[in-house]
Amino acid sequence: MQRSATSCFAKHIAAFLVRPFGEYPAFLVLTALLPLVPDIIRFFLNEMSFVPGRNLFYGTLLSLFRAWLLVLPLCLRQHDRGGEILAVRIAEAIYRVFVLSCLGLLSLAESFLLIRFGTPFSFSVIQLLWETDGRESLEFLKTYCTTPAFLLPAAACVLLTAGYLLAEHRKIRFELHSRKVRISLLFLLAGSGAFYVSRLHFQYALTRTGDFPGEMMRQTATLTPFERLHTSLFWFRHEFSAENAEQLLRTLESVEIESCSFRSPCIVIIIGESFSKHHSSLYGYPLPTNPRLEERLRRGELFVFRDVVSPANLTTSVLSNLFSPASLGSGQSWKDSPLFPALFKKAGYTTCHLDNQAAGNDYDYHDLGLKALFNARSTPLLFTVHNENRHPYDLELLDDYDRLTSRDDTPELVVFHLMGQHVSYSDRYPKEEAYFTPGDIRREDLTQQERQVVADYDNATRYNDQVVDAILARFTDRDAIAVYLSDHGEEVYDYRDFFCRSHDLPLTPEVCKYQFEIPFMIWMSDTYRRNRPDVAAQVAGALDRPFSADDLSHLLLDLAGIRCRWYDPARSLIGERFDTTRPRPLLMGFEPAGNYETIIGRDRKQ
Question: What pLDDT sits at residue 359?
Answer without folding.
Answer: 66
